[in-house]
Amino acid sequence: MTETPQKKRKRRGSGRVTMKDVAKLSGVAPITVSRVLSGSDYASPAARDAVMAAVRELGYVPNRMAGGLASVHAPVVPILVPALRNAVFSDIIMGAQEHFFEHGLETLIGNTLYSISKEEHLTRTFLGWSPPAIMITGGTHSQATRDLLSSIEIPVIELMELVEKPLGINVGLSHAGAGYDMTSVLIERGYEDIAFLGTMPDRDLRALKRMEGYQKALRDNGLRGDGFVQFYDQPSTFQLAAQFADIYLENRAKIRAVFCANDVLAVGLLMECQRRGIAVPGELAIAGFNDLSIAESVHPRLTTVHVPRYEMGTKAASMLVEVLSGETLESPIYNVGYEIIEREST
């Protein structure tokens, strides 16, 4: 009896771009591609440029699950934030983590350091682990990041601000609106010579939107359209804010109140005023943004904008769980809102 030879099964391609595809297009060996993507210094600048050009053209995402590089016992959702040591973002993370934990999900945290290129690198890296979804702060991304997030078939959640054209789910607030409303409150209290203090205008784009709201409120009330604006190209610290006291003393006639882009700057300036004997609010009124716990602990207590950060994280996680469960959201956009908290500093 003659046996009929069995046909060999052909392995179906997954359609996924591989490291070999990148190597072929860039004209280098696969090991060179691996070195470039891992950040190794063993690849020449020319090879690195060629590999990254091929990665962008092909839309390549490293598959970290292939080859047994990781053992995952529960789905992991990456959360990208601009500053881990900032309590604003840690509150959002905690809100999301606690809700995720109840539904068998874990989180992986990435710190972008307010860098669009760093955000792109982390996005590409985290997507390589095939997560069920990804959460990312803000709505301004590099084109490569937007292309990646637009092409993947998992939910994308943009946090912290309302985005004009969100990539998926959007949970946040209007920072321009909050800046406008805080400035309007100061004007209503009789302050007309109002300054704005912020940091990193090229990176902290939400602070920039608060400033835009501040300037619009001035114009709408017939005051100086541009106001008195001071930005420092450094992260916010108490010590940095203290430098503004010198600017105030040189411009007493032009500054009666200061709207600070965040509470760290506001508290730093408040403490420096106390050290120098500048009466708050007698000589200078000070307002902040975020309503951190320290806002109620300083004297005088700080007027600020309350942002429901923990609730924002919880709501974003809740909407994501609904989507992952196959439910349809009533709306993919959720405005968490804000509240102006008036205290003794103004």
TrEMBL record:
Keywords: DNA-binding, Transcription, Transcription regulation. GO terms for molecular function: DNA binding. Gene3D superfamilies: 3.40.50.2300, lambda repressor-like DNA-binding domains. InterPro entries: HTH_LacI, LacI/GalR-like_sensor, Lambda_DNA-bd_dom_sf, Peripla_BP_I. It comes from the Bacteria. Pfam families: LacI (PF00356), Peripla_BP_3 (PF13377). The keyword Cell division does not apply. The keyword Transcription regulation applies. This is LacI family DNA-binding transcriptional regulator. SUPFAM superfamilies: lambda repressor-like DNA-binding domains, Periplasmic binding protein-like I. Residues 17-71 form the HTH lacI-type domain. PANTHER family: LACI-RELATED TRANSCRIPTIONAL REPRESSOR, TRANSCRIPTIONAL REGULATOR.
